[in-house]
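Quick start: read one record
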Amino acid sequence: MDSHEERVITEDLLERARSHIGASLKSHPPFHEHVTEDAVRHFAHGGGDDNPIYCDPTYAKGTRWETVIAPPMFFRSTGVPSKTEWTDDERALARDPLSGIHSWYAGDVIRWVRPMKAGDRISERRFLKDLVEKESSFAGRTVLEISRREYRNQRDELVVVSDQINIRGGRQKKWGDRQKYASYERHQYTPEEIERIDEAYEKEFRRGAEVLYWEDVEVGNDLPGQVKGPITVTDIMNWNMGWGLAMQFPGSHRLAYQWRKAHPRAYMLNAHGIPDTIEAVHWDDDLARRTGNPHAYDYGGQRIAWLAQILTDWMGDAGWMLLLDCQVRRFVYTGDTIWTKGTVVGKSVTHGQHEVEIEVQAEDQRGEVTATGKAIVLLPSRGKGPVVLPPQIDLG
């Protein structure tokens, strides 16, 4: 099997990749074709979120939405391809010229326009927006790959727009060859540390049906923080069960063989000479080390979902998360614990919307910042009434 483990970015490869900017990209059938109560609950639980507006149909019926709605990051598990007919030229441009070059999720700029409700069927349009060359101390010559994803419901209403950023770089180096994580050691927890984490879980805040008004928020207010961890392979598998694997595998055994036959560059040989998906870097330490990491690591989208949760828990059912611009700064490995926090940094009234700007970040148990971002949340006003959903965006 040709696993293409040694493939690196060359000038010729980058030039070919740039010729694909603006081209529609093919996407695989989604993990969730329909937004259902079960799918939403499984996704929320996979990220450690049991907010009843996602998980309890009886509770959700009493909210302004009158039904279960999906957590903000649910869109990453859904989206039926909107483009079904392709010319030969379109098929050629839809292929990934960087196939076999490893991809690390690096961030997202996401705008939410409408809720995803139980019963919705979501379609997705995807295209390559830009490629930006970047030198990395971790992976050498890399490219920031920005792909635009647009999601619409069955009423053709725009629901979510995402500009997802992936770092594409060589996967051929082993742990220790790259100095950034060469000195990493897995943390050994004391009973006292576990007790502190458990206390944080016990005190986790959720506003729920209580209304938070824009007038009652002040710049400098801190959001109640949350903890996620210590991260285990079990946690990562729970995330996968709710979200679905990033490659959207069609199944196991013969079905997995057929997928591997069609996508050989998405596989590596594990320590026993067995072809396994590159996604196994999230639960297999050996394969993770062959991408320059000391251990298996979390999904970037998983971490952004954690940051989104402190925002939705803080704003309550009456708020609306309009925008989240996040960057994934460092890897989070199995055994790490993540503490999320946020601070209000601005307030404004824009086009009649009462906006609150919030800085968010995630830190591990070493105090290293692993993700940062800025969010805009809409809140009801005592004088102007409830939040009005943003107008539909003209994307051209």
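The first strand starts at residue 80 and ends at 81.
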